[in-house]
Design a protein that fits this description.
The structure is a single chain. The chain has about 400 residues and is α+β, with helices and mostly antiparallel strands. The chain has a domain of about 160 residues. It contains 10 helices and 10 strands. The strands form 3 sheets. Strands 1-2-3-4-5-6 form a 6-stranded antiparallel beta sheet, with helices on both faces. It has a two-stranded antiparallel ribbon with strand order 7-8. It is globular, with a radius of gyration of 23 Å. The N terminus is likely disordered.
Length: about 400
Amino acid sequence: MRSSRICLSALLASALLCSARSEVDFADLDAPAHAYWTRPLEDPFTKLKADLESGKIPLTGRDEMGFVVSLLAALDIPVSSQTLVFSNTSLQLRLISPRNPRAIYFNENLYLGWVPGGQIEIASLDPALGGIYYISDIPRGEQRPLFDRANRCMNCHAEKATREVPGLVIKSVLPGTRGGSIDSFRRDETGHAIPLEERFGGWHLTGKHGLRKHWGNAIGDYANGTEKTIPVEPGKYFNLDRYPVPTSDILAHLLHEHQVGFVNRVVEGTYKARAWMAEDGGILSAEHARALGEQAELITRYLLFADEASLPPGGVTPDLTFAAAFLGNRRTDDAGLSLKDLDLRTRMFRYRCSYMVYSTVFTGIPEALKTRVLERMKRALGTDGYPHLPADEKKAIRSILAATLPAPTGGW
């Protein structure tokens, strides 16, 4: 009898081990379900890459900054989206300092980083794969740019801060006076729920915002065992004329944070849905269906700003040039309402449903996940919960979505 029990226990243990080993790691980029390195790319930058390198899309500019401005124009990224970061938190960390900040520019689907005297970095969002990363030297003279897909970027862009899938990174740290960082905030978290008091560390922040406490525009040091901060005004250690615009605007920061949080959640959901569908042979198990429903709820809450951090008393006043550029591609209903319409008094948007529903990463998510998100959005915009959205705001959002986004079953 004892021998039979031992054999039965061994068989059960073996079965459990085999079951565990058969599970697909959703973040295994090499898994056939994802094929991150071999799948044909559909991100916006890759579609333009050959034309940019061949000169078919001309890039002008006699100097480094001129080239950057020309490339931004070719990629339809507003120059006014510029934010300046001076913490050593990038692939080019040796070049970045309060005397030589790194500039970040973005639209809904593309992000460009540039360090004066360094290289161009591109993060382009593929509908199936998330972030695709490129790096290029600044061409000199008659040289043409060559953009190499950068494997090294995955060291930061596919780890805890991005939920282990190819996403986007924002850090908030207190840079030390001698380099490095002496403190860190909101570790491995991104998105609009993060209190503004924990943001902006290592970044310049411009514009009117009324924030009494934040970590921007400062470096730090220890004195007698106590951490102290030292103000660093934008342009104090460097000439702002070295950059295309003299701003690192509060609105650009807010939108950047919102978009990064959105991308990381949606790309995580995409990888999980694809891995689980592959593991279950195309029909989700009850356990995976439940888990995917939880992922859809997480995305829905984020889309509808359920946990958005409040703006400071008096709101914020953005750089008008960037605000106009951001609104340039707004999609409207018959009444002229848009998900991009800004509020900026107590919250970012007048109608709290993210314009990122039009982005490549959302339109490309697996149907099993998209259906669950859209159905939850539909219920939320009806009578099912989400009390932070009053009835008239829900009605306006439904009208905008009906005019601009494919509807779930039965319409919005």
